[in-house]
Each structure stands twice: as C-alpha cells, then as structure tokens.
Specification:
The protein has 767 residues and is an alpha+beta fold. The protein contains 15 helices and 30 strands. It is globular, with a radius of gyration of 27 Å.
Length: 767
C-alpha cells in the first residue's frame, strides 16, 4: 500500500517533513506504544498475572432463542480444582446491565435471547479445568423459534419485557407534497460487520481487603464500566476500581461489560484473583457488531439533477438488546440524505430487537449504512439524467450555513464541494495495458483465475459525513490534571488510548504550552475523574481541551511571578523552545530556571456546548459538530466471476487542524481500509441467529495484501472555532465513505445496481 499526501495549508503539515516542529502541536511524533506493539512486547490484558490466580470460563448458550427449564451446576462443583460456579442466582445486586439501557442480564435466567448469551461462569485452578467445568454445567432448554428478520419483529411476540421496538424516529422536514421531475427508488441491505479486535477480550479481577474488587481490563470507558460492575455486585462505586491495561486498539466499544461482570463475581466469591481470557469464538459471540440495516429510498430531483425531496425507511437490527441502537438510529436518520442540500426530507427510522447477535457502537455507526444507500441513489440520478456522477454531487453539495433535515444549521466548516473537486481532479491511475499480462494485478489476487479480457475498470465517488462527540443532549465532559515537578510534567486524565493518538496528543499539548520536553501521561484508572468513552473522536476534543486548559493554568502559575517582578502582565510573556521571553526582550530565561524548586499543578474540565434530543418530528440541534470526506474509488472487476480489486482510493477530508501529520495519515489509512472490509469481505453470517464460522478463518478481514493504494490528495484545514485547537476527529468518516465509493465504482464497471454490502460476486457479474 502506498500513500501520497498533499497538504498545502500549513508548513507543519508538509508530508516531506521539512519545516515540521520536533515537538508540540504539528509534530509528526509516533504513538507512544507503536514500537512495543510492533515488536510484540506490549503487555496485553491476556498477559496479566497474580499470585494465587484462578482461571475463569463462561458457559454460553448454543441456541439463539430458548427457554431455560433448569440449570444444574452440581457436576461442575464436584470436579477437582473447581472453586466456584455462579449463575443468575448468585448476582447480589442489579441483574441487568447495558450501555444506555439496562436490559441485558448478567446471566440468562429464564430465557436465552441470542447465540452465545452467558448462562454460568466457573473459577478453577487451571484453565482446562475451568473450561471442562463450564461444559459440565447441565442446562435444560426448551428451544424456541428465533426471530431473525427485523421486519418480522414488529408483529412477533415480544422477545423482551421492554418489547421489540427500541426506538422509532419519524423525521419531517419541508413540504410533503413536493415532487421532482425525476424519481429514483432503491432497496439496500448492509451486512453485519464485526470490529474483530486484534486481541480477544481478557481481564483480571482481584478482591480487596475492604470487600471490594479491582478489575484490570482493556476498558474504553472505565468509569461507566465501574458503575455497572458496582451495581451488579451490590457495592458502592468506591468499592470497585477499574484499571485500564493492555488495550490493543479499538474500532468499537472494546470491552463487553458482560465479559467483565462474571470476573468480579468470581473474585468476590472465591476471595482469589480470577483471570478470564476468551477464545476468538467467544469474542465473536459476545461483543457488539455493526447494525445490519435494511433501507428503502426514494429520491426526487429536478431536470438539472438538484434534489427536491428524499423519502426513506431505515430499519436497524439491534440484535437481542438495546445497547447503543438508539444513538445509531439517530445518526442514520439525521444523515440519511448525506452532505447534500435537501429542502424536503421525510425519513422513518426504527431499531428493533431480534434473536440475532447484539449490535452496538462500531466506528461510524448509522452513518455508514445510509451513506451506501444515498450514494447509490445519486448514481441512479446521474445515470438517468446522463450527468457525470461527480458533477451531480457538486450541484447538490452542502456548505457551511446550510440546513440539515433535522433543522440544525451547519455552523462548522463543511467544505464538501472542495473535497469532491480535489478527488475528481486527481490524476487517475494508469491502466496496465503497457505491462505484460502475466504482471497484471487481476481481481482475485496473485495467480487469480481471471482473464484480462474479462476485466472492466470502474470509477466511483462517495461523500460521507459523521457526527463529532455524542448527540441529543449527551453531557460531553472530561477532566484533566497537569502537574509539573523537577522539570517533568505529568498528565492525569482518564482518557483511554485506543489508537487514536490521545497519549501523544496530551504530551504535545503540554510541550507546546509549557515548553517542557519531558512529559508523562499517567496510566488510567477510576481513581481519576471521569473522561468518558473513547469513541467519535471525543478525546481529541474534550480530553485534549481539558489538558490544554489545565496546562494553560499551570503556565499562568509559572509566568505570574516573573511578570510581577518585571511589572508586566503574563500575556506579554511567551514560551518558545523552552525559553521564556518578554515582548520587549528585557526578560529572557529558561523554563527550567523558572521552575527550579517549584511544584505546580492545575485541574480543568472541557465541556462543549450542549445539544438537544430530536423531537417528535425528528427536529433539533442534536450534534456538536460534523466531519466530511470525499473518496474516489478506482476498481477492476472480473465481470465473468464477479471478483473485485480496489486499485486506488483517492481521499480528501476536512480535518479542522492537523495536530500530528503522521498519526493523522495513519488514522485515515486505517479507516479507509476498514471500509474496504465492509465493502467487499466482512459479513458475520448468522443463519437462524447462529453465528457461522466465528473465527478469523471464516470471517474475512482485509489484510495488508488487500489494502489498495490510498492517495490522501487533500486535507482541508479550516478550523472549527468551537473545538479545542480547531481539530476534527479523523478516522470514522473515511470508514463511512469508502464502502459507498467502492460500490459506486463497481456499478460504473458492471452496470449492475449493487444494492448490498458487502458486495457479493453475483452482484458484480455483468449481464
């Protein structure tokens, strides 16, 4: 995979490295964990150990839907080495949990609602003993007919006491009688993508002398996990501590609380440390996946291709429990028309429970599904009118000041037309006609079965948008402390580093503000004030903003004595390259000298401006900010066997401000590649609710060999004035956009409608 970067906005962003700072904001610094992770020496949660360790195993349901008649744990308890077996009867506190709605049992008690749901957990002195003991728990089931079609969930018997409908959003915007001269319709299906984390879930629970417990897990939201655990254990939050350890990276909610809760129960029951490392199969069964989605669209346009009205129905399959489906539906409905000016929009959105595996937060949830659909509709309009697909999109592109279908004004930078023009005008890759046929990279990989005469090249476009931070009244807040002592600065913030680069960003902020090179970021645990979950670019904004404010407060403490001594205000002093100087040159000293013998610290919070829930008509200022991306895809398709090779993806993105060029580039590349998986290979199949092939041989993740050439042709630095540093999150919007662009290119190559993701071979065979 090769990448070209063209950034003409700031010298700091020069891809060659010339003119870049060596520290602080704008420096291309590597992630703090990159070296140890690539060398294989990073201590993951699966590497944890404690004296007197017991091993845990979980018994999971083999059925998607069943009534539990009885549970017999006696045989497991009689096995040598088994120290404890827990079921729903052993939960001392709240038996239900959930990320937004507490509707999911810690252990199933009377009904099993999805394949892999926990029934019991075992602690033993050896991992093999624990697994055998879990298998020895006898559960008598009355198998029930599963509800796996979300359309049938409306009429089916309730699968849950809360019913099958989680949320319905009817969005009404404009004139329902409006109509265009041209109408196109489409039905689209998006598959179930798994986040497939590098390391399967693992953790360690250690009982405390005060009757509490400590959980050492790779949590991405430690304070929320602590509160859920405390409620389950019947303890106060002060008696439960979550220590974040061994996070391998995350493209979703990294840790399922249903995995964490049995750990603490077993530790409290046995009085011993208990470790649980799930298998890859268990990981596929337990954590949340991207929502499979059914979408029906009708677009109205005038004779020039300008959009008049969009009508859509969006149905999200939430699986057995609510999780974050309400938020995903809000994003899907709000962004159902895409980054286009649409004066009239009428959208119906539903999220429903089924007996399929649970769905939840996966990068770009809701927005990815609708992007694939509305971009397919734009291709249909362009084809009917005989307009170039890029030109049609330009005629409808959104800009700052336009109105979303939710009635919210787009106040953040929205350079959609500029992004699209950049990828449209970027030179296309050369055709392989001048190279020998045996050197062609054909669809299907090296030694593929394709014939050069059957290869068709297609060019397609995708425009995507995502929200930044939480929505609909979510209280987005983070707290950070900056301490300076003995010439070293320490940042204390409970923002979990999941690969987004926050740890390095925090260092850069303090280096930039205080002129101190040696900056340490403390490990995260729940003894620190909360910083919220690691998703939607939150920590770049709210946690980075909190670190900046705390660092500026320390800066004032540092400069005040000097300013007072020389009879000037602190605003007339500046810190550059470790030196403190005044505007008139009278004062010149080093930061090290000014800090000598001092210990300074400050704590600050960052809380963006509030949002509001969507009302009964789907209207409201629900989002803090948005980010946009344009991608041009070039694909080669074997029209005889339906295989697809992505030749190149040209990317243009609005990023607000580039804080770390190298990490920004890596985040965009990773997001694009995840989108390639959603477009072509990743679909967790669940016939009758049973997960088929729950492993990395049966679930086709794109590898380095599958990654296309990614050309980052333009990064627009137009700062969002309400965001700290003016920066925007970078990784979600290319995930959202690349599948739509790839599908558009396959349509161009084959003439087929391509209305399903991932794209199946039969959909890419030309007729």
């Amino acid at each position: 995979m090769s990448t070209e970067v063209g950034i003409a906005t700031t010298p700091a962003a020069d891809a060659s490295g010339a003119g870049q700072p060596t520290h602080g904001i704008g420096a291309s610094l590597p992630s703090a964990e990159s070296r140890v992770k690539t060398e294989g020496t990073f201590p993951y949660a699966a590497d944890l150990w404690a004296e007197g360790l017991l091993w845990a195993a979980v018994l999971r349901s083999p059925h998607a839907h069943a009534r539990i008649v009885s549970i017999d744990t006696s045989h497991a308890l009689e096995m040598p080495g088994v120290r404890a077996v827990v079921t729903h009867e052993d939960v001392p506190g709240e038996p239900l949990h959930g990320r937004r709605t507490a509707d999911r049992p810690v252990f199933a008690s009377d009904v099993v609602r999805h394949h892999g749901e926990p029934i019991a957990a075992v602690a033993a002195d050896h991992p093999d003993t624990a697994r055998m003991a879990a298998a020895a728990v006898i559960v008598e089931y009355e198998v029930l007919e599963p509800v796996t079609d979300p359309e049938k969930a409306f009429e089916a018997e309730p699968l849950h006491p809360d019913g099958n409908l989680i949320r319905h959003i009817p969005l009404r915007h404009g004139d329902p009688e409006a109509a265009g001269e041209l109408v196109v319709e489409g039905l689209y299906r998006i598959g179930r993508q798994d986040p497939a984390p590098i390391g399967a879930e693992a953790g360690l629970a250690v009982p405390r002398p005060d009757g509490g417990v400590e959980l050492y897990v790779a949590s991405t939201d430690p304070h929320a996990d602590r509160d859920r655990a405390a409620a389950c254990y019947g303890l106060t939050p002060e008696h439960v501590k979550v220590v974040v350890t061994g996070v391998p990276g995350a493209t979703a909610d990294r840790e399922d609380a249903g995995f964490q809760l049995p750990l603490g129960l077993l530790a409290l029951r046995t009085g011993c440390p208990v470790k649980l490392t799930v298998t890859r199969e268990e990981s596929f069964l337990s954590h949340a996946h991207r929502h499979p989605t059914l979408l029906r669209y009708r677009h109205h346009a005038d004779a020039e291709g300008r959009l008049v009205k969009v009508e859509a129905q969006i149905l999200l399959d939430a699986g057995a429990y609510a999780d974050t489906s309400s938020e995903a539906l809000a994003a899907a409905v709000s962004f159902a028309c895409g980054p286009y000016v649409v004066p009239n929009a009428f959208i119906e959105g539903w999220a429903v429970r089924t007996n399929n595996p649970p769905s939840g937060h996966v990068r770009g949830e809701g927005a990815l599904q609708v992007c694939a659909a509305y971009e397919a509709q734009m291709d249909k309009i362009a084809k009917k009118l005989g307009i170039d697909p890029a030109e049609l999109r330009l005629r409808n592109a959104m800009a700052t000041g336009d109105i979303l279908p939710t009635g919210q004004t787009v106040t953040c930078p929205a350079p959609v037309a500029e992004l699209l023009a950049a990828v449209r005008d970027f030179p296309l890759p050369e055709l392989p006609k001048d190279t020998p046929e045996d050197e062609w990279l054909l669809p299907g990989g090296p030694e593929g079965a394709g014939e050069p005469s059957a290869i068709r090249r297609g060019v397609g476009y995708g425009l995507g948008m995502v929200q930044l931070l939480g929505a609909e009244g979510t209280d987005e807040v983070s707290t950070a402390t900056v301490k300076v002592h003995d010439g070293m600065a320490t940042v204390i913030c409970a923002a979990v580093e999941t690969g987004q680069g926050f740890t390095m960003l925090a260092r850069q902020i303090v280096q930039e503000t205080l002129g101190i090179e040696d900056v340490r970021v403390a490990p995260v645990d729940t003894d620190q004030p909360p910083a919220g979950p690691s998703c939607r670019g939150r920590h770049t904004w709210v946690s980075g903003g909190a670190v900046e404010r705390a660092a500026k407060m320390v800066r004032t403490q540092l400069l005040q004595p000097l300013a007072h001594k020389f009879g000037m205000s602190t605003e007339l002093l500046q810190i550059t390259d470790g030196k403190i100087t005044s505007y008139d040159g009278v004062l010149s000293t080093t930061v090290t000298e000014a800090l000598e013998g001092k210990e300074l610290w400050a704590t600050a919070q960052c809380r963006p401006h509030p949002t509001e829930p969507l009302d009964e008509a789907g209207q409201g200022d629900a989002f803090v900010g948005m980010a946009f991306c344009a991608i041009r895809a070039v694909v080669d398709v074997d029209i005889e066997i339906g295989s697809v090779r992505v030749v190149e993806l040209a990317v243009a993105q609005d990023v607000g401000r580039i804080l770390n060029p190298a990490q920004l580039k890596a985040r965009i590349e990773a997001g694009v590649t995840q989108g390639v998986g959603a477009a072509l290979t990743e679909n967790l199949r669940t016939p009758r609710g049973i997960v088929r092939h729950p492993d990395l041989t049966g679930y086709a993740l794109p590898t380095a060999l599958d990654a296309p050439d990614i050309r980052i042709v333009k990064l627009v630095e137009e700062r969002d004035v309400v965001a700290p540093f003016g920066a925007k999150a970078a990784s979600a919007v290319p995930v959202v956009t690349s599948p739509a662009a790839i599908a558009s290119a396959v349509r161009a190559a084959t003439g087929r409608p391509v209305n399903r993701l991932p794209i199946r071979p039969q959909a890419a065979v030309a007729t």
